[in-house]
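[Q] Does anyone have a clean structure-token version of this?
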Amino acid sequence: MMTLRQVEVIRAVMVTGTIGGAAKLLNVSAPGISRLVKYTERTLGIRFFQRQNGRYFPTPEAENIFEQINGVYKKVDDLSELISKIGRGGLSELRIGSVPSISQVMVPRAIERVRRRYPDLGIDINILKLEEAIDYLLLGRGECVAMSYRLEHSGLDFMPLASGELYCIVPPGHELAGRKQVSAAEITRYPLIGIDPNDPYGRIMAGIFARHRLDYNITIRARFGTTVCALVKAGLGIAIIDQFTVAHGGYPGIELLKITEPTRFETYIAVKRGAPLSLHVEYFIESLRAEMRTVEPSRSEDNAAPARGRKK
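[A] Here you go.
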């Protein structure tokens, strides 16, 4: 039997025609090449080369062997190319989902990291409502979903991403513009856009209003944060928004005010329980967590000005 190393050495001598040339091709010493050729010929009982004027020529007996060696070497090359493609993400697809608030700014920044590591990786991103995430995972449409809260479900596991806070957003020129923070009582003095008590973020503010027995007036309902920001920018009211939607200047033309009352919340990655995760989705989760934690408020920042997000 010939080892792959013997195949490699015999082929190198055949291609270059000299022991020295084979040694340079394989980046090893010439005596080592010579010894391995002689050892292979002796153990197999076959003479591979005839030496003429310092050059090595295949013997007639070895022609069929060389043909097979070339075939083996081509398969090794094909294997190397396949491994290289896999290493660059080729032949694979990353399928992930996200709720709108995390997909606006955070997911694209994480995907940019993934693309740098796996330049040939196919990527499929789905923007999902909370109620859509369960079927998306359980039916195998994707491997993970970035979530704004965790729920109890026997078929899903939740991994922590990062903490966040809510901010009050106002248009430039508004009475509240230019301030660093605002209280819940002050917020209720103005027409509000988009607070839904059934939404995870809306539930936080609705709870604050209820505890302080504050009445508030919802003039426009809008489900997605980008729509809410556009309505505020148009001067149609003020709103409460999560920090990840507007991180890193994700929506210019509005001003962020920290809310005096605590509004901290947690975000999660949901996966199908028991399903193995691909290397690509593991790296995506790692990247998303890193991006979100760069803007995560520290536990001591409850009374600090809102973080706009650091630039990379």
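[Q] Thanks! Anything notable?
[A] The two ends are 55 Å apart (CA to CA).
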